[in-house]
Amino acid sequence: MFRIKRGGIHPDGHKSLSAEKAIEVMPVPPKFFIPLRQHIGVPCQPLVKAGDNVKKGQVVADHPEKKAPPVHSSTSGKVKEIGNFPHPVFGMSQSIVIESDGKDEWMENFLIERDFEKLSVEEMVDIIYRNGIVGMGGAAFPTHTKLMPPKNKMIDTLIINGAECEPYLTADYRIMVEYPDLVMKGARMIMKILNVKDCFIGIEENKPKAIETVQNYAEREGIKIAVLKTIYPQGGEKMMINAITGKEIPSGKLPMDVGCVVQNVATCAAIAEAVCRNIPLIERIVTVSGKAIMAPKNILARIGTPFKDAIDFCGGFRSVPGKVIMGGPMMGIAQAGINSPIVKATSGILALTKKEVDYGDERPCIRCGRCNEVCTMRLRPNILSILSEKHKHQTALAEYDLLDCVECGCCTYVCPAKRNIVHYIKLSKAKNSLAGKAAV
Amino acid sequence: MTTLFIFIVMTGLGLTFGLMLAIANNKLAVEVDPRIYEVDDILPKGQCGACGFAGCLGYADAVVKNPDVPVNLCAPGKEEVARKIATITGKAQSSIEKKVASIKCAGTLDKAVRNFEYVGIQGCVSANLLQGGSKVCKYGCLGYGTCVKACPFHAMRMSPEGLPLINPEKCTGCGKCVSACPRHIIELIDPESMVRVNCSSFDKPSVSRQVCQVSCIGCAQCAKQCSHQAIKIENNLAIIDKTICIEECYDPVCLSKCPTKAIRPLIFGLLPGTENENSDNFIYKGYEQSGIYYF
User: Fold this and answer.
1) Of A151, A165, B54, B167, which is most buried, counting CB atoms within 10 Å of its CB?
2) Mean pLDDT of B253-261
3) Which of B14, B37, A146 is nearest to B6 (CA)?
């Protein structure tokens, strides 16, 4: 049994709400809002204009210098307009509005059959880039960048992340149970691209069915299963490496500096679909859950589907929700409304009841040190939050390793004074980046 | 016997050290211009940094030592302090322009549309991190009082309507609130101004009309009315030429035609939107009422 060496918490899982619900295909909604910025980095430039007819899978936006993965149309129809529309992360963002024509016609050259063993590494990376694949665990880091490490970095271990430590979310679990073949195929492709021999798939012990299913496939492919103890935030990239290999990533460095690459199971499945069948990333599995949802489900939804349509497909709201969150309750982003669309990084839509949402007032730090105990990055969240409160952002950066914080939220979860520690840390990070920009 | 011994030793030590300190004080004395402390004493001690130096002592030091530093840099001290500094340093006296802070937003809780309730850290920068604050308008006042906390002279407070209020008597025009505001919507204006535009939105009229009842929609009615050509429209926002407005205009006709009342007279003691068109509120009233707040 593997586990992170230090820290972590055990929040109530609530996974039973949707864990055993098989993936349901969501019908095509009448209108899609496809944001041009669905990944970390620069936004894409639109390639279509209002009035154009588009086909399913057509590239509607990309970056002229290949700095951002392209965005594809999720269905066939007409581009209605390009303008500022709600975005689940940035509030408002430039988006392409596509009205579905109901035919759902594919572009040519899609759905072909291709054997990846015959393709070269460069061809495969190019296919992954052209199909717009990004990390689907939540951070949306462009996958092709991750698969092309600099020549001087030796990669020896590939870790497939199936931990899904966030409460409520069951999308990755359903992928492992229903499409283990795709996950394994994707993992083998990444092994070929990176030329690594060691591959682990990390799954937490609270998913016995997934472990059993994946085991049957993994043994054939030479992939090892690492059963992890259930701890939040073990699904984080840095924690996963620490739990399985025991290595610790030095401050300010990336996983590739210790010879590891981590990929989410959903990303593996998307890579397999893209390389073998040339299907771009236009749909993903989303968990719609929470006590305020009538019938929690795992749905296969198109990118650009408004949250409202997805929630309506799951029976609508049971009661007036206190908060709607994109992602998990620990790291997800609270939404201003339910008009924002599903993007490539949307692993779940949660609706919490008013009872579950704590509006408690924050009080001064009592120096109990619980946040120091649970911090897996070995930071001192209490000091960071106090420094931020007193506007000493530069001290936090210089002396307390502010930038190493992964914003997992364990400190805020355990704080008895109900301090918004992660928010304080985010504020310090923003202040420091603003100060840096002003200095330049 | 022991007591006497201790008494003698301690007295001896005390006298020796006292003597050493007295000698050191004379021999190692640093020449300091006493005028620096004289100037420092008359400065208002807000430590606001409006002069551009590190605190009041920093300015006192610079104004005494450096002949190029003028005497009128202390905005909070106004004319009186400038006159005193001129007397002490022997420099030429120059006047200070009176400035007060003004918030270029009138979107109170009932006027501006909000799309969620913010419950995080009470501060404008923090609220701005979460999808740009709870107001739909991404140019207006966030309303969490970062400027109020930044004011060193306690001249600001938050109104229950969700906008900061400024006391013109206490406001010294130091500009701390201007740099604290993450939206950059506070400006220092001349209190002699006839009118001001209480909006910062560059949104298209179709958008800004939906998100705020009192936003400037760039309709240019005010520019057409103004006989002095003091108003022009840039990026859907009216911009007033302050010099023309203060020096030439005595009858602000621009106010009468504004459909959203985004352009307003400079009146003390009234929240935006509460001015009555029929009363004589359009006339600049001056400072006669003390201790009241205005925008």
Assistant:
1) A165
2) 81
3) B14
| Residue pLDDT, tens place only, B208-233 | 888 888 888 888 888 888 888 888 88
Pairing of strands A224-228, A198-204: parallel
pLDDT digits (tens, 9 = 90+) for B123-141: 898 888 888 888 888 888 9
Give the lowest-confidence range in A28-37, A137-146, B83-92, B269-278.
B269-278
CA atoms within 13 A on the CB side of B137: 33
Evaluate whether A79 touches A332 at the Cβ level (below 8 Å).
no
pLDDT attached to residue A115: 83
Q: Do A427 and B132 touch (CB under 8 A)?
A: no
- Domain ranges (residues) in chain B: 35-89, 100-265
B149 touches chain A (CB under 8 A): no
**Nearest chain A residue (CA) to B128:** A427
Q: Are strands A198-204 and A45-46 parallel, antiparallel or unpaired?
A: unpaired
Residue A424 has pLDDT above 90, yes or no: yes
For residue A288, the cross-strand partners are A297, A349
B116 touches chain A (CB under 8 A): yes
Place B282 in a pLDDT band, splitting at 50, 70 and 90: very low
Residue-level pLDDT at A290:
93
- pLDDT computed for residue B276 by the predictor: 44
Task: Identify the three-state secondary structure at position A46.
Answer: strand
Three-class SS state of A123: helix
Given CATH 3.60.10.10, say whether it is the number of domain A1-28+102-358.
Answer: no
User: pLDDT averaged over chain A?
Assistant: 91
Kindly report the pTM of this predicted structure.
Answer: 0.84
Work out the burial of residue B206: count CB atoms within 10 Å of its CB; fewer than 13 is exposed, 13-18 middle, 19 or more buried. Answer: exposed
Q: Please tell me the total number of residues recorded for chain A in this structure.
A: 440
Write the pLDDT tens digit of every residue in A303-324. 999 999 999 999 999 999 989 9
Half-sphere exposure of A248 (CA within 13 A, CB side): 9
pLDDT band of residue B242 (cuts 50, 70, 90) is: confident
Predicted pLDDT at A387 = 95
Q: How far apart are CA A283 and CA A304, in angstroms?
A: 9
CATH 3.20.20.70 fits B100-265, yes or no: no
Closest CB to A91 among B119, B123, B132: B132
In whole angstroms, what is the distance from residue B183 CA to residue B176 CA?
14
The pairs formed by A14-19 with CB atoms below 8 angstroms and a separation of 24 or more are: A14/A167, A14/A168, A14/A289, A15/A167, A15/A168, A15/A169, A15/A170, A15/A173, A15/A206, A17/A168, A17/A289, A17/A290, A17/A291, A17/A296, A18/A168, A18/A170, A18/A287, A18/A288, A18/A289, A18/A296, A18/A297, A18/A298, A19/A170, A19/A173
Q: Does A427 touch chain B (CB under 8 A)?
A: yes
The strand ranges marked E within B145-230 are 156-158, 164-166, 186-189, 195-197
Which residue is associated with the tokens 């909006």? Answer: B199
CATH 3.50.50.60 at B35-89, yes or no: no
Q: Pick from B227, B221, B262, B228: which is nearest to B244 by CA? A: B228
Interface test with A, best of B113, B116, B117, B121 (most A CBs within 10 A): B121
Whole-number Å distance between alpha carbons of A223 and A268: 14
Whether the CB of B180 is below 8 Å from some CB of chain A: the reply is no
Chain B neighbors of A426, CB-CB under 8 A = 129
Within an 8 Å CB–CB cutoff, is residue B115 touching chain A? yes
Amino acid identity of residue B1, one-letter, is M
- The CA distance from A266 to A172, in Å, is 6
DSSP 8-class letter at A45: E
